[in-house]
Every structure is written in C-alpha cells, then in structure tokens.
Amino acid sequence: MRAGKLNKRVQLQMPHRVKGDDGGFTQTWVDVGSKRWAGIVPISGREANRSNQTIASTESRITMRYSSVTAEISETWRVLHGEKVYDIKRIANLESADEVIELTCEAGVNDG
Fold it and tell me: How many CA atoms lie within 13 A of 21 on its CB side?
C-alpha cells in the first residue's frame, strides 16, 4: 500500500466499563496505541427519520497498515478522525496477508 493513500490521522478506541458509586457501570472509551495513518473513503450515505428527527449516516472504508494493534481490532471498537466518530461494522485482513486492515465503518448514527 502506498503511503500517499494513508493521509488521515486516526485514533483507535476500545470500550471500557467503569463502576460508578451507585453500583452501576458507565461505558467510557480508551485510546488504543497512538494515532496512526489511515485512508478514509466514503462508500454510501443515507438518512433516517427517528423520533421526528432526520439522522444522516455515512458508511466509509478505513484502511490502515497491519500491526500488532490493528490485529486486535474488534467490532466493539471505534475510530476517531478529528471530532468524527466511526463505529466499526466489519473488519477485513486483505488477502489474509497481514499487511493491510480494511474497516467498514458507519458515522453519524451513534457518535459516541
């Protein structure tokens, strides 16, 4: 993969449950590793009407180099690019070659 296509800095995050004083749990997000270079390509977009509000979402393909960190990614993780939150929907180790990870993500639905 050419470095020029990996032109965005992203942060991987995984969920972390924190026990509250009331005995319940709150989910927070923890950075995994440092920021890494990635390519982000929008695939499709759509709008939905929920509770009398129009919600727009975008599906994107996020590509990054394979590493010990990216090898651990799961669909419970998310990707941050600036203020934009991408929920991971699918993970592909392209050609099972351990060189490139491709994530299919959705932004705009959850945002947190």
Answer: 0
With tokens 């060189």, the residue in question is 99
d(CA 74, CA 72): 6
Look-up: residue for tokens 């727009």?
56
Model's pTM, two decimal places?
Answer: 0.81
d(Cα 65, Cα 98) in Å, to the nearest integer?
8
Mean pLDDT of 29-53: 85
Contact 33, 13 (CB under 8 A): no
Backbone angles phi, psi at 88, to 5 degrees: -80, 125
Place of tokens 């490139």: 100
- Measured from the Cβ of residue 111, the count of other Cβ atoms closer than 10 Å reads 13
Amino acid at 77: W
